[in-house]
Amino acid sequence: MDAIAAASTTAPRARPRRTSVAPWLGLLPFLLYVTIFLVWPTLSVVSGAFRSEDGGFTLERVRALTDETALRALRQSLYLSFSSAALGAVLGALLAYLIVTAPPNSLMRRTVTAVCGVLAQFGGVTLAFAWLATLGFNGLLTNLFADVLGTSGTGSTWLYELPGLILVYTYFQIPLMVIVFMPALEGLRPQWREAAVNLGASTFQYWIKVALPLLRPAFLGSALLLFANAFAAYATAAALISQGSFITPLLIRTSLTSEVVLGQKGLGFALALQMVVVVAIVMTAYALMLRRTARWLR
Amino acid sequence: MTQSWSWRITRVVLLLCFGLFFAVPLLALLNFSTKDTITKERTGAAWRALFDNPLMSEAIRTSLELAAITMVGMVVLLVPTMIWVRLQVPAATRLVEFLCLLPLTIPALVIVVGLDDVYAWVNYLIGDSALTLAFVYVVLVLPFSYRAIDAALSAIDSTTLAEAARSLGAGWFTVIARVIVPNIWQGVLNASFVTVALVLGEYTIASLLHYNTLQVAIVSLGKSDAPTSMAASLGTILLAFVLLVGLSLLDRRRHHTGRTS
What domains appear along chain A, each with residue ranges and CATH number? Predict the structure, then answer.
């Protein structure tokens, strides 16, 4: 009632600008919830990485990241993320271009977009099993190759190693690339091409001198997002590889589940911190790239 | 635009290659889940086992319950907060957006490493049940739900609607529940669908906290009863697909009504 009285004395559209904290109280449940279930776990990872077994401050756990096991896992993880991001970015950009050049409301385009959404975000364990059913023991292609080419029917052992992970990761990286890169492709206006052609440019020149420089930040940004996505992915790798820890996420699993070696939990904290740092750096670079794209998009 | 024949043919060939690459593993799942491993004959045993196998059917029930609880939790937590921010505390827009998008930068694997303290309390206060996973799942779905609801909220003039309702004597609860929410139900529905799909597919946190959800059961059955695991995997992704295609169809209908009105 006070608000209405105040409003009637001033200009009709001016809303009462109260600087009181009362409206902020309405945010309390949300802030409290996010603090408990997101901020607190994150902070306890950070503090856990710098804590010794008896609770004091130590750099021992972080120093353990330079051990041969942890370093090799990090190297393999970076290699896996880089390869699957590069493959996913190039092939995904190509697929996105094929989709964008189709009529906007066509059935094909809507289906591909929906399928990409599912495969990019909800795959996880399913994708591991899909590739097991394809290339594993008794798999579809395994049996086909065994019948036609006479290869071994036991399935591909490389599926459970780094090359297999790259293949399976690429399967969800391509759809993710389509989703994040398509807006940039859709933002390329036909007028720019017409202008270039009017000035005497060939198709090749248009792509090299106009389209590619425009798309480069969006492309690199999307590739960075793919990199972070692969680096943090866990479910697919864990479902595919039940033993072993040759990439960082699987090493975190080992350190969480192994009761044998004392202090393994400590390494888990340090590895988780390392993962946050890598992902945060990559995502910051992604945000910067996105800002450059936003300049000409829409 | 004039298109040369060679480009058209290249295009079709490329699309076919992509189509094959994406379709073959899913078809392989279907093939594996409908075939007897020994006799190689077609059988629906694996799909029936989704309901007959106690481990699997129990896990499916748990995951469906989790999806429902998470959905309700997300709506109750996020929708009033986002409306309130828009109407009353615009200064907090960036803060809420930042917190909602934060799970994109902090992977689920990291959250689960730091979750010990929090879940010690949750288990102490509420009890040790797989359904307590819903607490952390609400956080996981925040980025996707935020975007869906934010898009819907941006499309309406919530301030004017709220002022109109307030001047007619409506309380804040009425404003949110009976004036704003009916106008953004499409966004809320989007957010709910995505939530269900994400919860049904979640493996990382459930497996590392040792709860038996659908995805955990799929992995643990993978060794002993592969066809059932394959059937459940395919079922999950088909359900996610149905949910998302349903969404895009709903979206399309809205665009149509938008154009005609």
Answer: 1-49 (no CATH), 68-297 (1.10.3720.10)
Whether pTM > 0.80 for this model: the answer is yes
Interaxial angle between packed helices B226-260 and A125-135, expressed in degrees from 0 to 180 and rounded to the nearest 10: 120
Q: How confident is the model at residue A13 (pLDDT cuts 50, 70, 90)?
A: very low
SS3 A116: helix
Q: How far apart are CA B201 and CA B199, in angstroms?
A: 5
Q: Is the pLDDT of residue B69 over 70?
A: yes
Q: Can you list the pairs that A16-23 forms with residues at least 24 positions away whose Cβ atoms lie under 8 Å?
A: A23/B84, A23/B88, A23/B89
pLDDT attached to residue B216: 93
**Any residues with CB less than 8 A from the CB of A155 and at least 6 apart, and which?**
A135, A136, A137, A138, A139, A142
Out of A218-232, A258-272, B83-97, least confident range? A258-272
Partners of B114 on chain A (C-beta within 8 Å) are 40-45, 48, 269, 272
Residues B87-127 have pLDDT tens digits of 989 999 999 999 999 998 899 999 999 998 899 899 899 88
Placement of tokens 């935020």 in the chain: B146
Query: Between the CA atoms of A249, A252, A257 and A262, what dihedral angle is there, to the nearest 10 degrees?
Result: 160
Find tokens 């297999």 and name the residue.
A164
Q: Of A168, A233, A188, give the one whose Cα is nearest residue A96.
A: A188
Q: Residue with structure tokens 């076919």? A: B16
Asked whether the beta carbons of residue A41 and residue B115 sit closer than 8 angstroms, the reply is: yes
pLDDT tier, A188 (very low <50, low <70, confident <90, very high otherwise): confident
Residue A170 one-letter amino acid: T
What would the pLDDT profile of A241-259 be if each residue is shown by its tens digit? 888 788 999 999 988 887 6
| Contact state of B114 with A249 under an 8 Å Cβ cutoff | no
Say how far apart CA B179 and CA B170 lie, in whole Å: 9
| Residue matched to tokens 């829409």 | A298
CB distance B140 to B112 below 8 Å: no
For residue A97, what is the nearest residue in chain B, using CA coordinates?
Answer: B11
Distance from CA of B151 to the nearest CA of A (A): 16
How far is B42 from B46, CA to CA, in rounded Å?
Answer: 10
Contact B203 A239 (CB under 8 A): yes
User: The complex's ipTM?
Assistant: 0.88
Reference A295, options A220, A225, A215, A207; nearest CA is A215
Report the distance separating Cα A193 and Cα A207, nearest Å: 9
Q: Please provide the distance, in angstroms rounded to a whole number, between the alpha carbons at the two ends of chain B.
A: 33
Q: How many CB atoms lie within 10 A of CB A150?
A: 8
Task: Give how far the C-alpha of residue B147 lies from the chain's centroid of Cα atoms, to the nearest Å.
Answer: 13
Q: Which residues of B touch A94 (CB under 8 A)?
A: 14
Which of B113, B223, B240 lies nearest to residue A269, judging by beta carbons? B113
Instruction: Write out pLDDT tens, residues B156-209.
Output: 999 899 999 999 998 888 998 899 999 998 899 989 988 998 999 999 999 999
